[in-house]
Structures are given as structure tokens and as C-alpha cells.
């Protein structure tokens, strides 16, 4: 039967350069699917915030819940595939669900549908919220459900002696994931920035969701085109139910025979032998061994997934000016897929063969251990960068202090005497920041509200104007309106992006322009002199007073941490994907892929919990804490890995099946008591063969 299976696999698809042609359809499907997923994800928070008008907290919570759900649903997909529909049908049905979800998202983002008064804003937000939540649920079900199936289905296309090709397939598969995600994270934000609409023009979220929806349909069509070439392993009944029942029986039976009079068995699962097939017991042992090894793995993902949160926040306090190119903080994340696209081929064709040539046996579990260490190094790099950033941050008043800023609006310097302080000379048009304890009282000072207590967000610059003229002045730019500023009063802060900004100062029908350049994360108070003459150049009549310095640590300093985390990802994730396939019994390939993805979900939950619980005041210390935790987990993992013995599930299954066939034949000729004895003998023999097949250690 096994030999037939092997022959079948090769007969199903044409072979090109030693690879089954069917693989082409699977990797193209993965490319389009990841484009669809990451493209939609790239604009999701902005959609929540600006289209559905949710606040930051709600938008972030729903976003993380959605991501976590996408890594929990693989379990569902895997059970359906391995026990009921088979991988092929599961991929088809869940891809349809997925595409419907993406279309629902695109439709939910058409503001014209409920904009009956045609003012550009939806009139029934409930419609858009409900439709988008249904859409997200279907997407989570679809993307998570097919994820373990597509990888395992790809692995299934290879024959038993195509280990090398199968390893290369998993690398190419990973390249496609990152190629798709890289393209979409660049393209969909551009689509979102377009304006579209029937009655009124608004930011085009429907297009930003519509293109990923179209790509998901393409993914489905490509997968169906390959249909005739795939090797489709049949599902073997409700395997998960059998597994649970078998484990339950083994535990119960062990408990019933807990007294010392009963001889011990090699493995606690052997207590299921009275009722269950030896092959099933052996398969469960294989799965449990791998799942046990997975226990420390979520810690890697905990660090890995902070790229999107902590590291992006770190980038907002850095300078993204790369000469001709200005990088926004969230665009730094694209460094990860770019590095994947370069590192995977380098590792596969250079580093791993070189290590092999040096006579070192760089086994999958060793690679994963090194991957974890590299991720820890990435966090040490992040901590070092953070220390540099902290040195450039302004000092803000603590909770027991207050800050006073004195601005000399006159044209001469003045002497200021503050209670309990020496007199100071304040030059014209200058600000003097003064931090004092709250119990010091100042009188006769202009009350100032809404001053900054932290660096401006997202690399923006916080700008305000102080009017030193005797007439009210209106100030505006293309990006912000500061409104009418009364004489000797100040405007609120407005957020201005980096680059050149031109401000128009207007009084009645007269106006003049003032231009200046901004970096990232600065704050300025622009003081309008009393001497300003409208109609002339007002460049010399406005003084920029720097409240907070622009970010001076360059974003390029984040590249080493991205390099190490991505090198770690290549060693850990690409290897783990293949390891989960190769160590799984034939009827539980998708289930083990889902187990692997489950470690990603747990890692994401740990990020949420740690972010809430561990309120470490210094960000660099938090990075060091995470790095240390991963090193500790890595030590535990390497010990566990040392005791792990690699198996060849196909060989073990073949031996068991052979024995069962022989037993069947013997059954016909030797019924009765002799048969029981022989099964016992064979069982011992099978265990010996199992042991022989599991010789290689870490
Ligand atoms: C976490 C998943 C198991 C692995 C995989 N993700 C990646 O390969 C990331 N490098 C992709 C990426 C793209 C853009 C920004 C950050 C990460 C997956 O999605 O299957």
C-alpha cells in the first residue's frame, strides 16, 4: 500500500527539475493569499480609526483580537482536513469563506452605501461595523483554517525519498509568503490614500480591501487549476476523536492499574493497548513528543511579534530621513520581508552547505535553537538603540513637578526673578523652560494649558503659534488650521509631518507666508513679532523656538535588530515549518502544522499580558528582560531537543502496517489463544523497530 502511495504521488503530477509541477500552483496560491491577508491587515487599524471612527484603544484591541484569532482557527481547519474533508476540499471551501469575508470588508468600506445626505460620512455606522466584523470573522476562519492545510498539502506532494526537494519547497513557500506580504504592504496603503466615491470623494478603503479580495479569488482559481495534478491523501476518519478517546482510555487504564502489582509499561500511552490499534498509539506518541517540544516556542513569537508594536513605536522617536527617501516609522517593518527574500536563498545555498562541509550536523532543532539566540541578540540591539534614543529625549516634569515656560515677547531682553531662584536674563523672543516642584506658587503669569507631556506621536512635529501682535492673526497650512489667534495669546498644538511646511499668516484681507523645514518628532513654538508687516516677506518676523528637539538617532540603527530577528526567523520559522511536517504521522500532518501555528497565537497573547502587567519604566530594560527570558527558554529548549530522537513516520507506519497485514494472514490460519500470544510478540518487535527508527538525537 505504501509503495503504491509513493508511486501514486509521482504519477499525479509532471516532474520538473525533480519537483512535482503541482507545487507551482500551491506556492502561487500562497503568494496571492498572503498578499490578500497582509494587504488587508496593513490598513485595518486606519480603517477602524478614520472610517469607523473608533478610538485608538478600541481599534488596537480589535486588531490584536483579530490577529490572535487568525492563529487559533488553524486548529479547526486542521481537524476538518485530517478527519473529515481532506486537505484539498478544506482549502477550497475555506478559501471561498475567506474571499467572501474580503468582499464583505470591501463593501463595508463603501461610504456611499449609507451616505443618503451625501456629506461624505456614512449615516448608518452600524451597517458598516456589522458588515466589517462579519467580514473579519470570515477572514480569520478562512486564513487560519487553510494555513496548516496548504503547507501540509504542499509537503504531501513529495515522495518519500524527496526530503531535499521537500526542504527546498518549504523555503520557497516561505519566500512566497514574504514576497506577497511585501508587495501588499507597499501597495495597499497607496490605494487607501486615493480618493474615491460616487457622491463624495473620500479615502479609498474599499479599493484597499477590494484588491486583496481580488487576489484571494485569484488564489482560489490558481489552486483549482492545479486540481488534476495534486496528490490528495484521503482523510482517515475522525482521527482527532480517536486520538482524544485513546489518550483518555490510556489515562483511565493507567489509573485503574496504579497498584504496584501491575508491571510498568514503557510509555504511559501503552496503557491504551488493550483497546486501541498499536499504529494509532505509535502515531499519538509521535505527535505528543513534538507537541511537548513546542512548549517553550511561544517565547520566540513573543519577541518576534513586537516588531509591529514596540519596534514601530521606537521608530517614531527616530529620524527616518534616508536622503532621497523618507521612511515612515511603520514602513520600517517591510525590512523584515525584504531581508527574508535575501536571507533564505543565502542560508539554503551558502550557509547551511558550508556548515555541512565543515562536518557539523546542523540538525533542525539546532537551527531552531540558534534562531532563538539570534532573536535574543536582536532585542539586545534594540535595547542599545533605545539607550541612545533616551539620551536625546527631553526631560518632562514628573507627577510631583510642574513646568513653567517663560516667553519674552518684547524686542529687548528682560530680567526675570522667580520665587526661590536667582534672577535670569531672558533674551527677546526666547522661551525659558523651568521645572519646579508643585508647591511653588507663581502669580500674574499667562496660564498655559495642553502643553506637551511626551514626544509627538508617529514622528510628527507638534507646532503652535504665539501672537505677539496687537491684532488677531489667522494661521494655516495645507495640513493644519491653527485658527484665529488673539493678540498676546497662543494657538493649540497641531501635528505637522516632516519636510517643508508653508504657513499662511492672515489678518483681514492681508497675508504673508512663512516657510520652514521639519524633521521627525520635534515641537516648536513660532513667535509672531509685533513688528510683522503683512504684504511683505514675513520670514524674518517669525521666530522658531525649539521646545523639543527633532529625533536625532537615525532609523538605520534599527537595521541590525531587524537583521538578527529575521536571521532568527529564517532559522527558527522556516525550519520549524518543515520539522512539523516531517515529524508528523501521515494522518496528522495538518494537525501538527496547526500546533505549530498555535505557538504563534500563544506568543501574541504573552505580548498582550506582559504589556499590561510588567510596567517597566525604562523601555531598554524591557527589551533586556525579553532577551533574557528568551535565552532562559532557549536553554530549556536545547535540553529538551537533546533528548529528542528524530523519527521517520512513514517508515514506522509502514512497519506497523506490514505487521498488521502479516497478522491478518496468520489470523486466518491460526485462530485462538496462539493468536493473542503472537500479537504480543509482534507488539514487542514493533516497538524494537520503532526504537531502531528513532536513533538520531538532536
Ligand atoms: C508568523 C507566521 C508563522 C509566519 C509568516 N510570517 C512571515 O513570514 C513574516 N516574515 C511576514 C511579514 C511581512 C510583513 C511584515 C512583517 C512580517 C506568515 O505570515 O505565514
From TrEMBL:
State the superkingdom: Eukaryota
Where in or outside the cell it occurs: the entry states: Apical cell membrane; Cell membrane; Membrane
Q: Which family does it belong to?
A: Belongs to the major facilitator superfamily. Proton-dependent oligopeptide transporter (POT/PTR) (TC 2.A.17) family.
> Known PANTHER family for this protein?
OLIGOPEPTIDE TRANSPORTER-RELATED
| Main subcellular localisation | membrane
Q: Which UniProt keywords apply?
A: Cell membrane, Glycoprotein, Membrane, Peptide transport, Protein transport, Symport, Transmembrane, Transmembrane helix, Transport
Q: Which GO terms describe its molecular function?
A: symporter activity
UniProt organism field: Lates calcarifer (Barramundi)
Q: Name one Pfam family in it.
A: PTR2
Protein name per the record:
Solute carrier family 15 member 1
Gene behind the chain? SLC15A1
Amino acid at each position: 500500500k505504501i509503495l503504491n502511495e509513493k508511486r501514486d504521488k509521482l504519477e499525479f503530477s509532471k516532474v520538473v527539475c525533480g519537483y512535482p509541477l503541482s507545487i507551482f500552483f500551491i506556492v502561487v496560491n500562497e503568494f496571492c493569499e498572503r498578499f490578500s491577508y497582509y494587504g488587508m491587515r496593513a490598513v485595518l487599524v486606519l480603517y477602524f480609526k478614520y472610517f469607523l471612527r473608533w478610538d485608538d484603544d478600541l481599534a488596537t484591541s480589535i486588531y490584536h483580537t483579530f490577529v490572535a484569532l487568525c492563529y487559533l482557527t488553524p486548529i479547526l481547519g486542521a481537524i476538518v482536513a485530517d478527519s473529515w474533508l481532506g486537505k484539498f476540499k478544506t482549502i477550497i471551501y475555506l478559501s471561498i469563506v475567506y474571499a467572501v469575508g474580503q468582499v464583505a470588508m470591501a463593501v463595508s468600506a463603501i461610504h456611499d452605501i449609507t451616505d443618503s445626505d451625501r456629506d461624505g460620512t456614512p449615516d448608518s455606522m452600524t451597517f458598516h461595523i456589522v458588515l466589517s466584523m462579519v467580514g473579519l470573522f470570515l477572514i480569520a476562519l478562512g486564513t487560519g483554517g487553510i494555513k496548516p492545510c496548504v503547507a501540509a498539502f504542499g509537503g504531501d506532494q513529495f515522495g518519500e525519498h524527496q526530503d531535499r526537494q521537500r526542504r527546498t519547497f518549504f523555503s520557497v513557500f516561505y519566500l512566497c509568503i514574504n514576497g506577497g506580504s511585501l508587495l501588499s504592504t507597499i501597495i495597499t496603503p497607496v490605494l487607501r490614500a486615493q480618493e474615491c466615491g460616487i457622491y463624495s470623494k473620500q479615502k479609498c478603503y474599499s479599493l484597499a480591501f477590494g484588491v486583496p479580495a481580488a487576489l484571494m479569488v485569484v488564489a482560489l482559481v490558481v489552486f483549482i487549476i492545479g486540481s488534476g495534478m495534486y496528490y490528495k491523501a484521503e482523510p482517515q476518519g475522525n482521527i482527532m476523536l480517536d486520538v482524544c478517546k485513546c489518550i483518555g482510555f490510556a489515562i483511565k487504564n493507567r489509573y485503574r492499574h496504579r497498584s504496584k502489582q501491575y508491571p510498568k509499561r514503557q510509555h504511559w500511552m501503552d496503557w491504551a493497548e488493550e483497546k486501541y490499534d498499536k499504529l494509532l498509539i505509535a502515531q499519538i506518541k509521535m505527535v505528543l513528543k513534538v507537541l511537548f517540544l513546542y512548549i517553550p516556542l511561544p517565547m520566540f513569537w513573543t519577541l518576534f511579534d513586537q516588531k509591529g508594536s514596540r519596534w514601530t513605536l521606537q521608530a517614531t522617536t527616530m529620524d527616518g530621513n534616508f536622503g532621497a527617501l523618507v521612511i515612515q516609522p511603520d514602513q520600517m517593518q517591510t525590512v523584515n520581508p525584504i531581508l527574508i527574500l535575501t536571507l533564505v536563498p543565502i542560508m539554503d545555498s551558502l550557509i547551511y552547505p558550508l556548515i555541512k562541509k565543515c562536518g557539523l550536523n546542523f540538525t533542525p532543532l539546532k537551527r531552531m535553537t540558534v534562531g532563538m539566540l539570534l532573536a535574543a541578540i536582536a532585542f539586545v540591539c534594540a535595547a542599545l538603540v533605545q539607550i541612545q534614543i533616551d539620551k536625546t529625549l527631553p526631560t518632562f516634569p514628573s507627577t510631583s513637578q510642574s513646568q513653567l515656560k517663560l516667553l519674552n515677547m518684547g524686542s529687548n531682553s528682560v530680567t526675570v526673578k522667580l520665587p526661590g531662584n536667582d534672577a535670569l536674563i531672558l533674551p527677546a523672543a526666547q522661551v525659558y523652560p523651568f521645572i519646579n516642584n508643585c508647591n511653588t506658587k507663581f502669580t500674574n503669569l499667562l496660564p498655559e494649558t495642553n502643553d506637551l507631556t511626551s514626544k509627538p506621536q508617529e514622528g510628527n512635529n507638534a507646532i503652535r503659534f504665539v501672537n505677539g501682535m496687537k491684532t488677531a492673526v489667522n494661521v494655516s497650512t495645507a495640513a493644519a488650521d491653527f485658527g484665529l489667534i488673539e493678540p498676546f495669546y497662543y494657538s493649540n498644538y497641531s501635528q505637522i509631518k516632516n519636510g517643508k511646511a508653508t504657513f499662511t499668516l492672515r489678518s483681514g484681507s492681508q497675508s504673508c507666508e512663512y516657510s520652514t523645514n521639519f524633521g521627525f518628532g520635534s515641537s516648536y513654538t513660532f513667535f509672531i513679532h509685533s513688528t510683522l508687516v503683512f504684504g511683505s516677506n514675513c520670514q524674518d518676523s517669525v521666530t522658531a523656538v525649539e521646545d523639543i528637539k527633532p529625533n536625532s538617532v537615525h532609523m538605520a540603527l534599527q537595521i541590525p535588530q531587524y537583521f538578527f530577528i529575521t536571521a532568527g526567523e529564517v532559522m527558527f520559522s522556516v525550519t520549524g515549518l518543515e520539522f512539523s511536517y516531517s515529524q508528523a504521522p501521515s494522518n496528522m500532518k495538518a494537525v501538527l502544522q496547526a500546533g505549530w501555528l498555535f505557538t504563534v497565537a500563544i506568543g501574541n497573547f504573552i505580548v498582550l499580558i506582559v504589556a499590561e502587567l510588567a510596567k517597566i519604566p525604562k523601555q531598554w530594560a524591557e527589551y533586556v528582560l525579553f532577551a533574557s527570558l528568551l535565552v532562559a527558554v532557549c536553554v530549556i529548549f536545547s535540553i529538551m531537543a537533546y533528548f529528542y530522537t528524530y523519527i521517520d513516520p512513514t517508515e514506522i507506519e509502514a512497519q506497523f502496517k506490514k505487521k498488521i497485514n502479516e497478522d491478518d494472514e496468520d489470523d486466518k490460519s491460526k485462530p485462538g489463544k496462539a493468536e493473542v500470544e503472537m500479537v504480543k510478540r509482534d507488539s514487542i518487535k514493533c516497538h524494537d523497530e520503532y526504537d531502531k527508527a528513532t536513533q538520531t538525537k538532536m
